[in-house]
Structure formats: structure tokens, C-alpha cells
Design a protein that fits this description.
With 309 residues, this protein is an alpha+beta fold. The protein is 29% helix and 33% strand.
Length: 309
């Protein structure tokens, strides 16, 4: 008997795959990050707990961002606190491109131990999720933002809490990180309302039998399955839900590291300032130095270059 062809490892990495379970009124996403995750983390040399936190945040951002339907839309995930070890975490997604960074207190991180909890890292923080969607026929974006307390054992738990509290959509979020292989994987599953009756959305209750059924199946997913580069995402989807009447596989999205900073962009931003303001920004050598937190690059721009002839 002929052997099966080897799995295409590259095809199962840096990909988001959407799916729907029509009979259960459920939808979801599977995500797996590999080289993209490596590229983003390599720019910062974060300590292990911070690198793991950002890997989880990027995976969640890809899960949420892949839901955007309109080209040009952007999803931003931001976690912030005033008294935590981490005072700011920001990730965003636009057109399949991911970027993110973390600002933290290195001395307090050492005191927190090897595997600090989410509460140890953030204290009483909050999670903000912002959707910027293009307005049809207009060159503008419509913004929607939801803010919830940063609660749970992980960012995945906090995002699930966001959907239940802000959107009234029962949601399950699972994220797994393979530190040794620098791979992250995630699953998002949601139960969608069919209608509304008064204030209660039909089929959007946490105890609805349809939701209980698909949630219990999704919870069987193993961390190793989410991060296995040799397990294609569509195979994982079939492994989980093959007994359903229909599993509708949606178009996949290729993911890439995307930082929008470059010298031309920096110049265009600085050119919007008045000449006097640019002069105040310049150092003694006549350069305005702009740092990009996302990619850890510095852009020294000569102030004289920005003066109009």
C-alpha cells in the first residue's frame, strides 16, 4: 500500500481558518502561528513570561481579526493597568498582518517568579477590544470598542468574558503555546443568536443545549493539537466536529508580521507638524529620532529634510 504524502507543514503555519456549524448556529476560527511569531518576538528579546504573554495575545488577536469581513478593517487588542508588572500590551491585526509589543517593569517581573499569573502581571487591569471597520462608499472608518475588566486565568479567558459581557455572545477561547517549538495555536468558538425576544437573544444563552453540545466538543481539543505543525487545521476541524451534520469550512487567511513603520511613513507623519514643533523635537545634531515600539527600530530623520523648499 502506498504511503500517504507527508503533511505540508508550511501550509498549516501562520494561517487562520474559519468555519461554521450551521445546524448548531455556531461559528469559529482556528489559528496557528510559527515563523510570524518568531519574527515578532525576535525583535524584542523579551523574558520568557512576557514572550509567552505576547504569543498568547497575538494568537487571540489573529482569532478576532480574522473575523473582519471588510478589507481595510483593523482589530486592536489592548490590555492596560496602572499598577501591574505589565502596564501596557498592544496587538493589532489588519489585512492578515499582525504586530504587537509589551511594556513592563523588568525588576518586578524577576520578583514575580518563573510563571506569574495573569493577575500577578496586570493586577486590576482592563481589556479593550477595538474594531475599526470601513464605511461603505466613504473614506472613513467606523469604530466600535468594548472594555471589560481583565479577569480569568489567561487572556483567552478575558476575551471570552468580553464577548459574554459586551456582546452577549457565548464564546469559548482556547490558546496553547509550545515554547520549545515557538508555535502558538488557538480556537475561537461562538454561538450566534437567531433573533431577539424582548431583551433576551434567542439561542444565545450560556445554557442552551446547542451551545452546550458544541462547547463540550471544542473543550476536548488538546494543546498539542493546536500547536502541532504536522496537523493541518482542516484536519483538526474534522477531528473535532466530524459527527456534525455539516461543517462548513470558510476561506483561510494567511498571516504575516506587519509593522507599518518605514522612513517614508515616519517622514509623512512628521511633515504634518508645524516647523516650530519639528525644531523642538530635533536633537542637537538636527535629527528627530522616532522609535517604533512594535518592531524595536529607530528612525533618525533630519529635520532639515522636512522643510518645504
Amino acid at each position: 500500500m502506498a504511503s500517504s504524502p507527508a503533511p505540508d507543514t508550511a501550509a498549516s503555519m501562520d494561517t487562520a481558518l474559519g468555519f461554521a456549524l450551521p445546524a448548531r448556529h455556531a461559528r469559529g476560527r482556528l489559528v496557528r502561528l510559527g515563523p510570524v511569531l518568531d519574527t515578532i518576538l525576535a525583535a524584542h528579546a523579551y523574558p520568557a513570561p512576557i514572550a509567552r504573554l505576547l504569543a498568547e495575545a497575538l494568537t487571540v488577536t489573529a482569532l478576532l481579526g480574522a473575523m473582519l469581513k471588510e478589507a481595510g478593517g483593523q482589530l486592536t487588542l489592548q490590555a492596560q493597568t496602572e499598577a501591574g508588572i505589565v502596564d501596557l500590551l498592544v496587538c493589532d491585526y489588519r489585512g492578515g498582518e499582525l504586530r504587537g509589543y509589551v511594556r513592563f517593569d523588568a525588576d518586578r517581573l524577576i520578583e514575580a517568579g518563573v510563571m506569574p499569573s495573569l493577575f500577578a502581571l496586570f493586577g486590576k487591569g482592563y481589556l479593550a477590544i477595538t474594531f475599526d471597520q470601513p464605511v461603505p462608499g466613504k473614506d472613513t472608518l467606523e469604530r466600535y470598542q468594548g472594555i471589560v475588566p481583565l479577569e480569568g486565568d489567561s487572556l483567552a479567558d478575558a476575551v471570552a468574558h468580553y464577548f459574554v459581557q459586551s456582546e452577549q455572545i457565548p464564546s469559548l477561547v482556547r490558546v496553547a503555546i509550545d515554547d520549545a517549538g515557538h508555535v502558538a495555536g488557538g480556537l475561537l468558538l461562538q454561538h450566534l443568536p437567531e433573533g431577539e425576544e424582548g431583551r433576551d437573544r434567542l439561542h444565545a444563552r450560556l445554557d442552551h443545549p446547542e451551545w452546550e453540545h458544541v462547547r463540550l466538543i471544542a473543550e476536548t481539543v488538546k494543546a498539542g493539537e493546536l500547536t502541532d505543525p504536522d496537523l493541518p487545521l482542516d484536519d483538526l476541524l474534522w477531528r473535532l466536529f466530524h459527527e456534525e451534520d455539516e461543517v462548513r469550512v470558510l476561506a483561510s487567511v494567511r498571516l504575516a508580521r506587519g509593522c507599518r513603520c518605514d522612513p517614508d511613513h515616519v517622514r509623512s507623519v512628521l511633515a504634518r507638524f508645524a516647523s516650530e514643533e519639528r525644531a523642538a523635537m530635533a536633537d542637537d545634531d538636527g535629527f528627530i529620532r522616532v522609535d517604533c515600539e512594535f518592531c524595536s527600530r529607530a528612525f533618525p530623520i533630519a529635520a532639515a529634510e522636512l522643510e518645504q523648499p
